[in-house]
Amino acid sequence: QITLKESGPTLVKPTQTLTLTCAVSGFSLSTGGVGVGWIRQPPGKALEWLALVYWNDDDRYRPSLKSRLTITKDTSRNKVVLTMTNMDPVDTATYYCAHVPPGNCSSSTCYIPYHFDSWGQGALVTVSS
Amino acid sequence: QSALTQPASVSGSPGQSITISCTGTSSDVGDYDYVSWYQQHPGKAPKLVIYDVTHRPSGISTRFSGSKSGNTASLTISGLQADDEADYYCSSYTNIDTWVFGGGTKLTVL
What we know:
The structure holds 2 protein chains of 2 kinds.
Chain A: E1 3-7, E2 11-12, E3 18-25, E4 35-41, E5 48-54, E6 59-61, E7 69-74, E8 79-84, E9 93-100, E10 104-105, E11 110-111, E12 118-119, E13 123-127
Parallel strand pairs in A: 2-13
Antiparallel strand pairs in A: 1-3, 3-8, 4-5, 4-9, 5-6, 7-8, 9-12, 9-13, 10-11
Chain B: E1 9-12, E2 18-23, E3 35-40, E4 47-50, E5 64-69, E6 72-77, E7 86-93, E8 99-101, E9 105-109
Parallel strand pairs in B: 1-9
Antiparallel strand pairs in B: 2-6, 3-4, 3-7, 5-6, 7-8, 7-9
């Protein structure tokens, strides 16, 4: 059974750096094709994709936030970490981490998934002085 | 990277069918068959109900189905049940190797 659990501060001050950790179980971060992404949701608003890291450390970022975001993984500790610099009250949101399943290859083609099939419970982060 | 466009709300009576649309561009929905749909009950994490436009994950009712035409994807829920009342979000992979979500649709079961 795949599980993900977010942890981090519930309150950060404006201009501070946020560090969130996603602890995963039920799969290995080194399995070919696996990815873990971060998605946030401001109170009462829509989901917003932020970043994703693949098993091979390849990463992707939301273009508008790329300069503020860093995503890394620690395979031995089964954790994925997201850091966001220069926090602002508009960054107040519930932050979710989610699993991208591994793809598979036949002799002639490979299937690569682009969906999030398991999600953590979320971590609410409030940005306020 | 603009959000995909969804209706803010839809409603239906128990037993009826509803369809939620999700409109993107030729850079996302129109370019890839990588549209997914998520159900979110209040205070809960999103749950995958459709992936790759038409595929249902294991354990998801056959009442949920997906389709796509051009830049617009759709989620249809047939035989509406009270527990289907939730927010629904579409998502698509994009041609700049990122993901984009829709603005969300609140489904009310009357």
